[in-house]
Each structure stands twice: as C-alpha cells, then as structure tokens.
UniProtKB/TrEMBL annotation:
Pfam families: TatA_B_E. NCBIfam families: tatB. Its main location: membrane. Residues 86-110 are annotated as: Disordered. This is Sec-independent protein translocase protein TatB. InterPro entries: TatA/B/E, TatB. It is found in: Membrane. It is a single-pass membrane protein. Transmembrane segments: none annotated. The keyword Iron-sulfur does not apply. It comes from the Bacteria. The keyword NAD does not apply. Keywords: Cell membrane, Membrane, Protein transport, Translocation, Transmembrane, Transmembrane helix, Transport.
Length: 110
C-alpha cells in the first residue's frame, strides 16, 4: 500500500470512528494482523517440516529398494538423519522421570 492509500484509510477511519475510538481500533487491527502473520509463520514451518519428512521418507524407500547397498550421499544422509531421530525418540521414551511424590517414614510406632 502506498502513502496516499494509507492516508485515505486514516481519514475515513477518523471520520467513521472519531478521534476517541480510532487509536483502539488501530491497536485491534494491529493485533489481528500480527496474529495472522504469526499463524502464517507457524503454518509455513509446519509445511516445511512435513515436506522434509516426506523427502526423508522417499529417500528411505529408495535406500530400502537398494537393500541399503550402493547408496547415494543423499540417501546415506537421510538414513543417518532418520537413525539419529529414532535414537532421540528412544532416549526420550526411556529417560528416567523424577519421582515427585514424597515418601513418609512412619517410625513413630502409631
């Protein structure tokens, strides 16, 4: 948007909302725009992650078809990345958890 378009929008907003409500309306619009931008960034990151997973899956299929022999550098890298991800998941699944319950030693004899 150019300067003149913004100026026209500001003048119309001032005439419609008045000087008392215009700052609040501007803040509300800015919050909405920021929320939409943040949502767009999250969706872009999620799509990027999904595309990466699909790419790794395709490379893994190619490696399996070759019996994991004579792999290209891309296939080797994909297999290594998947192995590392699997190790990370296994470590997270077997990590000891802290026991947050307190044990009471009832030695009072009652």
């Amino acid at each position: 948007m150019g300067f003149w378009e913004l100026l026209v929008i500001a003048v119309v907003g001032l005439l419609v909302l008045g000087p008392e409500r215009l700052p609040g309306a501007i803040r509300s619009v800015m919050r909405t725009v920021n929320s939409v931008k943040q949502f767009g960034q999250q969706m872009q990151a999620e799509l990027s992650d999904n595309l990466r997973v699909h790419e790794l899956h395709q490379k893994l299929k190619q490696a399996e078809q070759k019996g994991f022999l004579d792999l290209t550098d891309e296939e080797k890298a994909a297999v290594a990345e998947l192995k590392k991800a699997a190790e990370d998941v296994n470590k997270a699944g077997t990590a000891p958890t802290k026991n947050t319950t307190k044990h009471h030693d009832d030695s009072s004899g009652t």
